[in-house]
């Protein structure tokens, strides 16, 4: 497979469960050696999409090509070349760290010699050298996730799927986990990571935002936030609840979210809303002022899901 060819290409990807449309007409392209993110709330279609791309679920409609293979027809051949990690710790808690890795190596049909070398390599690389004989059940959540990641790459997959991998770990462990992901990408692995954390989404090279089974945005985090420049404001006031009531009565205001004693405001478009908002505050006798601020991924998410709601 050529380096210029995408690792994943899907067109018209749709999955229905009875009357429920879990994924609706998704087009997706993931470049090689990239950390590609799926951002969306629970029920947005992230896990269903990943399972179809892995060949674990058959799509209702659409075409999928992963690592040059047609899916689901060539799913068996694909499984030897991909890794998959779920949000729940899926290894054996009654086995040691080393035993878990050896078991996964056996599943991937590694030879005894290759298994020994690879397990020793992963114990060192994932900082388990002093815990090789520790039972998995006695480890912290962050250590378990790190072990699960080591297990998912035991066979050096070309493509790694991670479904909400850090949902149950603390912020420091999440940060360390993401460092490992970038090490994998630098070494040539393509990664598709689903998350509902905005700070994780910002780390990705490219990001897809899913809402109720629809891919509503797909670009780099910088370009996604840049597309909203001029549409985000910050309102400083000692009376944020009252200010929010006024804001939601001003035409062109999509949302106003309180953050401490300030409000983050998203506008429908770039126009004279700032002046009109300040005039509304003055009319109501409220001491508050709106000023432009840099957009965030949360603003992007609100904007693209708002547009989807308006069209439905």
UniProtKB/TrEMBL annotation:
Family: Belongs to the ABC transporter superfamily.
PANTHER family: ABC TRANSPORTER ATP-BINDING PROTEIN, ABC TRANSPORTER ATP-BINDING PROTEIN NATA
UniProt entry tagged with the keyword Lipoprotein: no
InterPro entries associated with the record: AAA+_ATPase (IPR003593), ABC_transporter-like_ATP-bd (IPR003439), ABC_transporter-like_CS (IPR017871), ABC_transporter_ATP-binding (IPR050763), P-loop_NTPase (IPR027417)
Name of the protein in question: ABC-2 type transport system ATP-binding protein
Domain of life: Bacteria
ABC transporter domain boundaries: 8-237
């Amino acid at each position: 497979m050529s380096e210029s060819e995408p690792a994943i290409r899907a067109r018209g990807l749709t999955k229905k469960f009875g009357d429920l449309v879990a994924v609706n007409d998704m087009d997706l392209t993931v470049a090689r050696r990239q950390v590609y993110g799926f951002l969306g709330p629970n029920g947005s279609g992230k896990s269903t999409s990943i399972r179809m791309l892995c060949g674990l679920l058959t799509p209702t409609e659409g075409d999928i090509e992963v690592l040059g293979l047609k899916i689901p027809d060539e799913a068996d051949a694909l499984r030897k070349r991909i890794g998959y990690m779920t949000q729940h710790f899926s290894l054996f808690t009654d086995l040691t760290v080393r035993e878990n890795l050896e078991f996964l190596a056996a599943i991937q049909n590694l030879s005894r010699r290759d298994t020994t070398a690879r397990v020793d390599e992963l114990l060192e690389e994932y900082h388990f050298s002093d815990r090789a004989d520790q039972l998995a059940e006695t480890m912290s959540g962050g250590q378990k996730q790190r072990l699960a990641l080591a297990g998912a790459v035991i066979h050096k997959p070309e493509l790694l799927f991670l479904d909400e991998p850090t949902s149950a770990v603390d912020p420091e462990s999440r940060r360390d986990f993401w460092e490992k992901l970038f090490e994998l990408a630098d070494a040539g692995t393509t990664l598709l990571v689903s998350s509902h954390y905005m700070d994780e989404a910002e780390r990705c090279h490219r990001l897809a935002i899913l809402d109720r089974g629809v891919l509503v945005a797909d670009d780099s985090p910088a370009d996604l936030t840049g597309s909203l420049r001029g549409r985000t404001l910050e309102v400083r006031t000692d009376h944020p609840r009252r200010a929010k009531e006024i804001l939601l009565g001003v035409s062109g205001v999509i949302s106003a979210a309180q953050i401490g004693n300030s409000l983050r405001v998203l506008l429908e478009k770039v126009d004279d809303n700032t002046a009109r908002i300040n005039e509304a505050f003055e009319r109501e006798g409220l001491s508050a002022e709106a000023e432009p601020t840099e957009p965030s991924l949360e603003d992007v998410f609100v904007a693209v899901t708002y547009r989807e709601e308006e069209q439905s």
